[in-house]
Amino acid sequence: MSEPTRCWTSSDPLYNAYHDDEWGRPVTDERGLLERFCLEGFQSGLSWLTILRKRENFRTAFADFEPERVARFGKRDVERLLKDAGIVRHRGKIEAAIANARGTLALREEVVWAHRAKAKRPPKTLRDLPATTPESVALSKELKRNGFRFVGPTTVYAAMQACGVVNDHIAACHVRAAVQRDIDARVG
Prior knowledge:
The chain is mainly alpha-helical. The chain has helices at 13-21, 30-43, 48-61, 67-71, 75-82, 91-107, 110-113, 134-145, 153-162, 176-187. The radius of gyration is 16 Å and the shape is globular.
């Protein structure tokens, strides 16, 4: 049996499951949004598969990305996390995750979805996708004004894709229509 058409090709079952079951599906809760933004920040300069493989470790290390809990992290927590081999040990990214939790409490969840663009024609290939959009630039600026870090327009656009704020599954992708139905149900 041949593999279904996906936006990207991978022989890794974890990566394929992420594509099929998560990428582009609407994420509307604060914990889920904080997790996606933090993981996109940690991914910067690394492969997404590296982050997926460490995801459960990140969840454990960052209190399951509960904004109220992570927002209370202090210097001792940063030092503890810098010693945790199960995550990406980068001081700036760790401190950004904590700052992002504090920013999440200030903004609450709807700010991300307020930057949703109008529907566009499905891309034929991933090469048809922009690295940023006017919406990701605007959201990046708003997040930074509210204390977020590691949220440049490219990282923000990747998070918007991951959270289903935009549906960038390619036209031939076997889950594109289901993802669009999920998005429409969320915003409809």
